[in-house]
Amino acid sequence: MSRGTTFKQCGCRDESTGRLLGRTCPKLRRGNGWSPAHGTWYYQLELPPRADGTRRPPLRRGGFTAKHDVGTELDQARDLLAIAAPGDTETVIRIADAITASMRDTRTLPDPEQVRKADAAGRQAACRRRLARGMAGRQEEAAARDRAQLRRAHPPVPQAPSRAYR
Ligand SMILES: [Zn+2]
Fold first, then answer.
1. Closest CA to 43 of 65, 70, 75, 9
2. For residue 157, how far is its CA from the centre of ligand 1 (angstroms)?
3. Ligand 1 center to residue 44 CA distance, Å?
4. 3-state secondary structure of 61
5. Does the N-terminal or the C-terminal CB of the chain have fewer CB atoms within 10 Å?
């Protein structure tokens, strides 16, 4: 799973083009690190593709003044995705759907407890579907067995030999 990144961004614009410099503003840099005074913290985390297989934009949020806070929210987002067992694509996609929806509607991450509950409910539903399919399969087998038994108990009456061959 993606570890995600944190970075700083500011509202400075290129003087000639008027375009936002984003994270390329030179004032954001100090030596090899980030300037403590300029810009605000952002995080970005790659999300799994949508259920239909199309690429989902990464989770990205910013405006944090403290590096600690941006790290905390990135950790929370990662923890949410980690609720899905490794390799359980169906669940991780469902969780990413919940994250995207919650971010769109409330600008906050979904409550991990809710996500866990939804995940458990989803797994139960999938389990019930599998059980129902298995049951239907077994009922079909039983019906086929009954039909075979019926045929053995009442074999078709052999045709009386034709007189012509006597
Ligand atoms: Zn700047």
1. 70
2. 95
3. 19
4. strand
5. C
